[in-house]
Amino acid sequence: MTSGGLTAQAVADLVGGRLLGDGAVSITAVGPIDRAGPGALTLAVSQHYADALRSSPAGAVLLPPALADSPAGPAARIVVDDPYGSMVRVIRRLFPDAARPAGIDPSARIGPHCELGADVALGPFVVLGRGVRLGDRCRLAEGVILGDGVTVGEETRMDARVVCYSGARIGRRVVLKAGAVIGGDGFGYLSGRSGHERIPHVGGCLIGDDVEVGSNSCVDRGSLDDTVIGQGTKLDNLVHVGHNVRIGDRCLLMAGVGVAGSTRLGHDVILAGHVGVTDHLTIGDRVQVAAKSAVIGNVPAGSVYSGHPARPNRQVLRAQAALYRLAPIVGELESLVAERRRDA
Fold first, then answer.
1. Are the CB atoms for 86 and 62 separated by under 8 Å?
2. What is the rounded distance in angstroms from the CA atom of residue 274 to the CA atom of residue 239?
């Protein structure tokens, strides 16, 4: 990946690092340590990368103090305490977001009584229902549909074909990636002998400031209560948040997570890929749940859970260790049984 460019010295100044070597090296790209070219910046985060560092063709490298004296390698070394964080800062400088220019495409359809803030951008075939309110500098890509009464805070970005159903409230600096669906009816039915009757959903859907919702993820509106996503929470692609769910601030829900209706998540919760959470549960602050786990009961704050069904991680690891120890014992028991049968 290439862009404008910085010198190695400019990179060191940007990240507050200590430069070793040639500060005039031109950096126009970033890349992995084994494939970055002479004009690229790479990073090495630990001794695990020591061998690759010595043979790296990169022009410059971000590395921790422990690797500063490694022989050979890139002509410029920038010593920092946090190579990953520093690389993020450099990437943002080298590759600034290409914001959609302000303006309204002629194919966009704007309903009555809408209020558009300053410098908004509406792409081709955007549809705004009645009474939509957009804050300043919002960016709506092609095919975005906002239902009646949707409100959107300033500097929010919606990628192609995002749909926000009527009444959804979207905060400031929110990112909704392509295909995200916000505020649709949840999966709620009254089942009886005549079939399944849909439960009306009249609650709201509130997305807090600085939230990100990944591609093809769905956040359902509430049935009676509101569905709420707290500030700074990030939802990966293909995440489903059911009706009446409330998720706290700064949570991370990774690919394929599903949270069933009326469950409550505290602040700083991490649900790894394909975690499933059943309905009407309470998951405390700072909980971490390992990938593929099935949460079927309340989880106390600060816990680490895993497994199917999910249990405290230490219990799961001990059970697995016991199972692995049991396997050779079973073999010995089978041998003893066979021996006794022969003797009989």
1. yes
2. 9
- Give 275-310 pLDDT, tens digit per residue: 999 999 999 999 999 999 999 999 999 999 999 999
Phi, psi torsion values for 199, nearest 5 degrees? -85, 125
Residue matched to tokens 């558009």: 116
Number of Cβ atoms within 10 Å of the Cβ of 215: 17
Same domain (yes/no): 82, 163? no
Within 13 Å, how many C-alpha atoms sit on residue 287's CB side? 24
d(CA 64, CA 171) in angstroms, rounded, equals 38
- Active-site residue, 243 included: yes
Pick the catalytic residue from 201, 243, 267, 274: 243
- Helices 8-15 & 83-94 angle (0-180, nearest 10): 120
Q: Are residues 74 and 125 in the same domain?
A: no
Give the integer Cα–Cα distance in Å for 44 and 30.
Answer: 13
Please give the residue range of the domain that contains residue 297: 103-312
Handedness of CA 128, 242, 226, 253 (dihedral sign): negative
Pairing of strands 181-184, 304-306: unpaired
Q: Do residue 171 and residue 297 come from a single domain?
A: yes
Asked whether 22 and 8 are in contact (CB, 8 A), the reply is: yes
Q: Are the C-beta atoms of residues 181 and 187 closer than 8 Å to each other?
A: no
Instruction: Please give the Cα distance from 139 to 198 (Å, whole number).
Output: 35
In terms of domains, do 208 and 184 share one?
Answer: yes
- Alpha carbon distance 283, 172 (integer Å): 26
Looking up residue 59, the CATH number of its domain turns out to be 3.40.1390.10
Q: What is the pLDDT of residues 52-98, one digit of tens each?
A: 999 999 999 999 999 988 888 899 999 999 999 999 999 999 998 87
